[in-house]
Write a structure and sequence with these properties.
The complex is a heterodimer. Chain A is of the alpha+beta class. Chain A has helices at 17-51, 78-90, 103-114, 140-150, 158-202, 204-212, 217-256, 269-298, and strands at residues 54-59, 95-101, 126-132, 154-156. Helices cover 65% and strands 8% of the residues of chain A. The longest helix of chain A is centred in the middle third of the chain and has 45 residues, at 158-202. Chain B has helices spanning 41-48, 74-78, 96-106, 111-124, 140-152, 170-185, 197-202, and strands at 2-10, 16-25, 30-35, 56-61, 64-65, 81-84, 158-162, 189-193, 207-211, 214-218. The chains are: A alpha+beta, B alpha/beta. The complex binds adenosine-5'-triphosphate (ATP) and magnesium ion.
Chain lengths: 302, 226
């Protein structure tokens, strides 16, 4: 399909051949970065709906120090501190429902871990179950700090905190991934510009001849566009295939060691389709850059 | 058709190659362009096919002053001009047929017609057996004929030929000149730069003679008997 006869001996010079390689590498990197961004977005969404929709607050029992003078709430009885935490949580916007878990229920929950019946005087933490409104607007980390400051011994359970951190990290990595996609795109544009300019310089006598024979800039640009499209397509297909292969291999490997926290690494079909847009965009970008570069350069010729 | 008014030309900061050139060519005329080697024949032709701008003076081609033309208007104007370059300037990676076909394809002619026209013309100039030959495999005279075929294929209104008979024997040279005469009779304006005094004498056309950077128009020798 690209064995088309060209007026310019473009296929004969070396400037073009590295372009296919550059496009291949760019498409490969771009697709991987985009895949990472998409997987992370997916994960974050899942954490939000599945796990972060609720959280548990623990209030640790503390040795009561009867009789001491107003050292504040530090020594307030567990029940009082629980009440305080409950009211604070209820007044927090974005919280749907707050339930204190009864001591008997807590003991039941702990039994499988500790075995047998628990001694009655075992100091158990008070547990509060918090259900958040969807979509989740509560900043869990901030809530934890506020709660810890107001209610001594109160702690938002680790999992929710950890997930909040992880989501922040995921967003950061996502940002980096998009930045990589953008960088890769501009590197591609620069490579095309230099390649086309080199081509124009090498073939200046032929371009001049075509002009003398009445070729329009459009006609000359078209020659370069066809040539660059051929190279870009070859590179894009190669890079895309390699990227899909890599993603498949990573997904396959991850399946084996998937932990409880790690959602599946595979992408839904719609997002796979989005990945395929990368090589197409790369080709389009290459052709548009070529057209612009040729016309821009030719405008300076008599 | 072509009008030079006080035109001067210099390359870069070099001396003026052409000085105060003024002349006018009527449509359908036939002129030889003569002068010693280095006199500026090729440069004068370059001015006409708009590959070079004069350093001073005003140049009118097809009734349009070239200073008034925008870049977008140049291609259409250039397509009305057929050029035979002194060094042919054929594209080495294309066959003889594709070389000659260039102006037609540029004009967007249907491919079937392109093939017909081109192979017919190439047969006419005696290259029927070399349609698919690449220029480097052709002799100098054969290349020259390909170049001439390319310059006339799209029936230009003006043909500028720079030493079109320099590499062929007199027989073929005569034949090519008869081709130019035929085209001229159909209305094509011709300017032929040549060293070949014999041809100039044989074909009674006025000549533009360059010497010391200036141009004189010389009427055909002994042409008053007609
Ligand atoms: N591109 C150029 N740059 C600088 N000087 C040039 C250039 N082309 C031609 N010249 C100079 O211009 C002068 C005229 O050259 P031109 O080629 O027009 O002569 P000519 O009459 O065609 O000669 P010939 O019969 O040998 O083909 C010469 O002195 C040449 O050195
Ligand atoms: Mg010359």
């Amino acid at each position: 399909m690209f064995r088309q006869r060209s007026d310019l001996p473009l296929t004969r010079d070396l400037t073009g051949h590295y372009l296919a390689w550059i496009v291949a590498v760019m498409v490969y990197l771009g697709m991987l970065a985009l895949a990472v961004a998409l997987v992370l977005a997916d994960m974050a969404a899942r954490w939000e709906t599945g796990l972060v929709g609720s959280l548990t607050v623990q209030i640790a029992p503390m040795p009561e120090t009867p009789g001491t003078t107003g050292a504040g709430t530090a020594a307030a009885p567990l029940a009082a501190r629980t009440e305080l935490a409950l009211s604070l949580l209820r007044s927090t916007p974005g919280v749907e429902r707050v339930t204190a878990i009864s001591a008997t229920r807590a003991a039941e929950l702990l039994e499988p871990w500790l075995g047998g019946t628990l001694p009655a005087d075992l100091p158990l933490p008070a547990l509060i179950d918090v259900v958040l409104k969807r979509p989740v607007t509560v900043d869990v980390a901030e809530l934890a700090v506020r709660l810890g400051g107001a209610v001594p011994g109160a702690r938002v359970d680790d999992q929710a905190m950890w997930l909040a951190d992880l989501r922040a990290l995921a967003r950061l990595v996502q940002l980096v991934a998009f930045a990589i996609v953008a960088l890769v795109g501009s590197a591609c544009v620069i490579a095309v510009i230099f390649s086309v300019r080199a081509g124009l310089a090498i073939h200046h006598p032929v371009v001049e001849l075509l002009h003398i024979m009445g070729a329009t800039d459009r006609y000359v640009a078209r020659q370069f566009e066809v040539h660059v499209l051929g190279l870009a397509l070859r590179g894009a297909v190669g890079g895309a295939l390699l990227a899909l292969l890599t993603l498949y291999a990573v997904g396959h490997a991850a399946n084996g060691l998937r932990g409880a926290m790690l959602p599946t690494l595979s992408l839904p079909p719609a997002e796979l389709l989005l990945l395929v847009v990368v090589p197409l965009v790369a080709c389009l970008l290459a052709v548009m850059t070529t057209r612009w570069t040729v016309r821009h350069t030719l405008a300076a010729m008599p | 058709m072509i009008r030079f008014e006080n035109i001067g030309l210099r390359y870069g900061s070099g001396p003026e190659i052409l000085r105060d050139i003024s002349f006018m060519l009527a449509p359908g005329s036939f002129h030889f362009l003569t002068g010693a080697s280095g006199a500026g024949k090729s440069s004068l032709l370059r001015l006409i096919y708009l590959s070079l701008r004069p350093t001073r003076g005003s140049l009118t081609v097809f009734g349009q002053n070239i200073d008034d033309l925008s870049r977008d208007q140049l291609p259409a104007l250039r397509r009305k001009i057929g050029v035979v370059f002194q060094n042919f300037r054929l594209l080495d990676h294309l066959s003889a047929l594709d070389n000659v076909a260039l102006p037609l394809r540029m004009a967007g002619l249907a491919e079937a017609q392109v093939q017909d026209h081109v192979s017919e013309l190439l047969r006419w100039v005696g290259l029927g057996n070399h349609l698919d030959a690449k220029p480097p495999t052709l002799s100098g005279g054969q290349q020259q004929r390909v170049a001439i075929a390319r310059s006339v294929i799209n029936r230009p209104r003006l043909i500028l030929a720079d030493e079109p008979t320099g590499n062929v024997d007199d027989g073929i040279g005569m034949r090519l000149l008869y081709l130019f005469e035929e085209l001229n009779k159909l209305g094509t304006t011709m300017i032929i730069a040549t060293h070949n005094e014999g041809l100039v004498e044989q074909f009674r056309h006025p000549r533009l003679h360059l010497e010391n950077g200036t141009l004189t128009v010389i009427p055909p020798a002994g042409g008053s008997e007609g």
